[in-house]
């Protein structure tokens, strides 16, 4: 039944639920409020992340800053500690947050997360399968990229890592993200056919996730067609590709063992993206994708980021840089029953001495 705000328009249940979802998925703006995260940067560039709570204080060897002094200030303000040190107050960027979040497993660095989002073409509304949630850093990037219309289904085999990931994702977005499904188990060899069956599309229930509620409005429906009754569109009408995933991201020790699962999960034209740390893992992953026969020729690369010092006429590379963190591999899924064309290239001498190199 419609509800009437004291001095506002009549809101349907769908509009109410959508508004609550938007508060989780959209970037916060405006003055700092209780519960917001604030990043305090000192004159030496050291950053401190605090969650603002009335009556609390941030303590450092350079003095104390009361949270109440920050609440109500606009972003970009400067506050002074009791010791006289000035701090720049801003909300953290996702790149800042992922480097300062609590860790179980090592996090995917922002430079690699950006490459994954760009080169694997993670788009708004995409269905993404992530294997290896770790500490939740990459999950945050994927969730922001797919938006409130997409879905990210994550698998993490270790319960302690999954708990850390859940806390980190919830903390960054200010609540449980409605597009996230976290499963505490190994990535199955045979993915269930209904893995996307609980996706919150028109006709689906908000929070229908095995083992727990993600929605704060029990019984409310998400994604109903504007102007129509709840559930007035079928999942197929709302998302024709619901029979499979658009993207599969494997961040695990042995992704080559799950190439067949990735192929089964992907729709034709979908992208498999693997993140590995060593040359040996890189080689085995690429050869497994080639050997499967259901993927186009894989691409492999790494990214190195070097900052620059710029001060007047003193312009030079920084003495430190973010070098090797991992290798990325992407490959496109072929249509069912179609083999990739043979590449005409001259193999390196001794690259493959007959049979499987591994």
Structure description:
The chain has 358 residues and is α/β, with parallel strands linked by helices. The chain has 2 domains: 37-90, Vcp-like ATPase, Chain A, domain 2; 96-199 and 239-332, Vaccinia Virus protein VP39 (Rossmann fold). It contains 9 helices and 17 strands. It has helices spanning 13-25, 67-70, 94-100, 110-119, 137-146, 159-173, 235-238, 259-265, 279-292; strands at residues 3-4, 10-11, 37-41, 47-51, 57-60, 63-66, 77-80, 86-90, 127-131, 151-156, 180-184, 245-250, 266-276, 299-301, 305-311, 314-322, 327-332. The strands form 5 sheets. The chain has a 7-stranded mixed beta sheet with strand order 11-10-9-12-13-17-14, with helices on both faces. The protein has a 4-stranded antiparallel beta sheet with strand order 4-3-8-7, with no helix packed on it. It is globular. 33% of the residues are buried.
For the biggest sheet, the summary is: 7 strands, mixed
- Rg, Å, rounded: 23 Å
Instruction: Spell out the helices and strands N to C.
Output: EEHEEEEHEEHHEHEHEHEHEHEEEE
**How far is the first residue's CA from the last residue's CA?**
63 Å
Question: What is the name of the CATH class of the largest domain?
Answer: Alpha Beta
Beta-strand segment tally: 17
Strand order of the largest sheet: 11-10-9-12-13-17-14
| Mean pLDDT value | 82
CATH topology of the largest domain, what is it called? Answer: Rossmann fold
Give the proportion of residues in helices: 10-25%
Total number of helices: 9
- Sum up the overall morphology in one term: globular
CATH superfamily of the largest domain: Vaccinia Virus protein VP39
Supply the number of structural domains. 2
Low-confidence parts lasting 5 or more residues at pLDDT below 50?
Answer: 1-20, 198-241
Structural class from helices and strands? alpha/beta
């Amino acid at each position: 039944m419609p509800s009437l705000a004291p001095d506002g328009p009549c809101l349907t249940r769908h509009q109410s639920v959508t508004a609550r979802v938007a508060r989780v998925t959209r970037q916060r703006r405006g003055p700092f409020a209780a519960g917001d995260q604030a990043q305090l940067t000192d004159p030496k560039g050291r950053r401190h992340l605090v969650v603002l709570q009335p009556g609390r204080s941030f303590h450092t060897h350079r003095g104390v800053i009361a949270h109440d002094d920050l609440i109500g200030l606009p972003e970009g303000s400067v506050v002074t500690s009791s010791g006289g040190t000035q701090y720049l107050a801003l909300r953290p960027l996702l790149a800042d947050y992922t480097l300062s979040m609590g860790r179980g497993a090592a996090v995917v660095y922002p430079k690699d997360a950006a490459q994954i989002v760009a080169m694997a073409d993670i788009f708004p509304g995409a269905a993404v399968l992530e294997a290896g949630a770790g500490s939740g850093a990459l999950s945050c990037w994927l969730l922001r990229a797919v938006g409130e219309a997409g879905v990210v289904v994550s698998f993490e085999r270790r319960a302690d890592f999954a708990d850390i990931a859940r806390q980190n994702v919830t903390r960054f977005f200010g609540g449980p993200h409605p597009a996230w499904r976290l499963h505490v188990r190994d990535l199955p060899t045979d993915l269930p056919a209904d893995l996307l069956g609980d996706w919150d599309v028109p006709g689906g229930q908000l929070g229908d996730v095995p083992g727990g509620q993600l929605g704060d409005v029990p019984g409310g429906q998400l994604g109903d067609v504007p102007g129509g009754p709840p559930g007035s569109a079928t999942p197929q009408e709302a998302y024709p590709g619901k029979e499979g995933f658009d993207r599969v991201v494997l961040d695990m020790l042995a992704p080559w063992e799950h190439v067949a699962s990735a192929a089964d999960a992907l729709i034709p034209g979908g992208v498999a993206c693997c993140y590995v740390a060593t040359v040996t893992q890189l080689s085995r992953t690429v050869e497994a994708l080639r050997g499967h026969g259901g993927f186009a020729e894989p691409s492999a690369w790494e990214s190195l980021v070097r900052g620059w010092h710029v001060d007047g006429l003193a312009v030079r590379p920084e003495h430190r840089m973010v070098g090797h963190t991992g290798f990325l591999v992407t490959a496109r899924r072929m249509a069912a029953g179609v083999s990739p064309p043979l590449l005409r290239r001259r193999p390196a001498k001794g690259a493959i001495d007959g049979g499987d190199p591994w």
